[in-house]
Amino acid sequence: MNHLPQPRHLRIHQFAGLQPGPKLLVTAAVHGNEVCGVAAIQAVMAQLDAGTLALLRGTLTFVPIVNPLAHRLQRREGERNLNRNLRPPVVPQDFEDRIARQLCPLLAAHEVLLDLHSFQGHGQAFAMLGPRDNQGELEPFAHADKESALAACLGVNRVVEGWLSTYELGLQRRAAKGADGSRAGALVQDPHYGVGTTEYMRSQGGWGLTLECGQHQDPKAPEVARLAILRSLVQLGMVAPEAVELHQPATPAEVLQLYEVIDREHADDQFEREWASFDAVELGQRIGTRFDGRPVLAPSSGRIVFPNNKALPGQEWFYLARASDRSLG
């Protein structure tokens, strides 16, 4: 167990162009063991410092290690998941609350966010897209076209939408079962719990994307992240187009919509096999088995997303997605 004192600061780097322009925030290591973005940010900062990359306009801010406690411990979380229930705390109760007290105003001070992540299972990089323009209560939004255009240029072949609305389904089911009395139990039933970096950014009038750059240890992931930063800067007009080869996919990216989340009920719930994100499932196919023998079947054909065989009871076990009718333009 870590015996050093907890980190007491966030390291923030900012480059201010001499001409007005967009305010872009790039973050990494929101989950401490997702380090590809850390390397990518360091590489881009080195390019800027060396003069091989010029910021023409706007403000570019980097936070290479958003959760320094989790990063020091080389695990996903410090004391809790920073990318859930993100909001300025009235009275901080844990390390992540203290980070949020600094991170939330920083997000609100910018217009665009690129949040760099990686994932546990095997698979290719993909982007998480926000909602379509709407005036609803869950996640009102008015910048869907900007997010779609950014997603289209990042160099990934798959884009996923529908996070917060699907997570809300899980919240409703957990609330119906009642809390266990712990703070963790209360948090996973909090209507705000699905809000992470991009969701908070949108709530403050901005917009942005989460980019899952690949598996945690994939040696290609840092380069995916670095190119995504450069392509974002070009897309926003902050650096010259010749600074990076823009991605021109041979075919449009596949767009999927999350529609269901299934929680693990018991520690002995088991998957039918070792699933990877975006593995295909057919209607009625057995995905897993509950501890008491009940089958867990696919309600429709589509893809399994974020399967987590380490999920604790009462937490998300896996998501399901199907083809979306959304176009990235």
TrEMBL record:
- So which cofactors does this thing need? Zn(2+)
Molecular function via GO = hydrolase activity, acting on ester bonds; metal ion binding
Has UniProt tagged this entry with the keyword Metal-binding? yes
Q: Report which superkingdom the organism of origin falls in.
A: Bacteria
Q: What keywords are annotated for this sequence in UniProt?
A: Hydrolase, Metal-binding, Zinc
Domain annotation Succinylglutamate desuccinylase/Aspartoacylase catalytic: ranges = 20-118
Entry protein name: Putative deacylase
